[in-house]
Amino acid sequence: MSETTNARPEAGPAPEEIRWFGTTWVDHDRGYGWRRVAVSVGSLLAAAAGAFVLRIGFQGLGDAKIGTFVTAIAFCGFAVCSVLAFQRTWKGFSARRPAGQANDQSLYAIGFIGALLAYFVRSLSEAPGETLCRSEYEDAKARHASRAKSGKRKSKSKPKR
Prior knowledge:
The protein is mainly α. It has a domain at about 20-95 and about 105-125. It is about 65% helix and about 0% strand. It contains six helices and no strands. It has helices at about 25, 30-65, 70-90, 105-110, 110-125, 130-155. The longest helix has about 30 residues, at about 30-65. The radius of gyration is 23 Å and the shape is elongated. The model is unreliable at about 1-5 (pLDDT under 50).
């Protein structure tokens, strides 16, 4: 049986996988460009579909004749949540969230269009989260190399008697 293609020739840190991209972001190989195009188009289409669904929902509020005040509050709530979801998603591409920070699932559920648009905009230039993963991977490789280098120096020295 032949060797697997995933075998790494040297031991060391493994790159983190990014959703939709796997580890193609490391060398920009195996269809990385096409994946970026697909993610861009997919997130934009999903945001457009979500906006269409919201439009139908707001049309339902108008047909129910509940008043402009309630409709305005609902619209402002979706707008604010979308802006916050965009901002937090965008920050998440460049920094890890601290452990113990509040869970924002409800914010993302309401402001999903903002999160999808952040994903779209970031995927125009790189895989979303690539910069963060690349810096962490480079740091891990440097730490591993320094440990390996210091380990080789220790093994070459002869013990004193």
